[in-house]
Write a structure and sequence with these properties.
The chain is of the alpha+beta class. It has helices at about 1-5, 10-25, 35-45, 65-75, 100-105, 135-140, 155-165, 175-185, 195-205, 210-220, 220-230, 235-250, and strands at about 35, 55-60, 80, 85-90, 95-100, 115-120, 145-150, 150-155.
Amino acid sequence: MEEVTLRSWGNPIIKESYEWMLKIGRELKERLVLVGGWATYLQAQKLGSRALPSLDIDFVALKEEFNTVEKHLLASNFIPVSFRYVKYYHETLDGRLKGISFEESKKIPPYELRELFLDVLWDEKISSISFAHPYARVIFEREIYEEIKGINVAFPEVILSMKFLIENNKYRGEKQLKDLIDIYVLTLSPEELDFDVFKLLYSKEKFSLDWVIQYFKENEEFLASVMRGIGITFDREEFLLTINELKESLKR
C-alpha cells in the first residue's frame, strides 16, 4: 500500500512534518490543539504503543484566533493555498529537502517536488473555502486535550470521534485505510477509553461506527499485516468488542 510506504521515517517529508508540527504547536500552544495522524502518533507513544507517522499536520482552533494563527504561519513561510497552508520543497539527488517558494515550485519537475500540508479546522468557517469542525469549540471549552512534548494534543477519544465522522465525507481508499489503522491503534491502546467523552462529542455531531466495522472486516488481512509490521499484536475480537460496546453506549 503506497499510503503506508509513504508514512515511514525513510520519507524525508515525514521528519520535516514532525519538526514543524512540534515547532508550530509549541509556539501557538494556547491557540492550537493537535488532532489527526500526528496526534495519534504522540498519544500512542505516551501510552507505550506504536502508530504510523503522519504526512500532514492537523490542528483545531477557534475563529477568534484566526489573525494570530495565520500571521504566525505566514511568518513561518507557510503559503495559504485554498483552505490549507503549504510548504514547498525541492528534493535533491542525495534525498535532502530544500525549501523553495511557490514561484520556484512551478519550475521543479513533479518527481522532485515535495509538499508539506498544514490544516487548521476552525469552530466556525473563516471563509467560504475554510473548514469548520463541530468538535472544535467543545475541545477548548471542556479542555479535552493534554500536553505531550510541549504541545496540546487531543485526547484519544477526541481523535477517534473525529475519525469516526469521516464516513460523512463518503470516500474510500488509501487515506481511509490509514484512518482505520489509527482507529485500531487508539481503540486498543493500553489505557481504557472514557465513553463519556464520546457521548459528549456525539451530542454535538453524531458519527457512525457501522462503516468502521464493515471496513475493518473488508480489510482485516491487510490491517493485521500492518499491525505486525509496526510491532502491535493484532486482536480482531477485542477490537470489534470495544467498537460494539461503544456503539451500544451511545444508544443509552
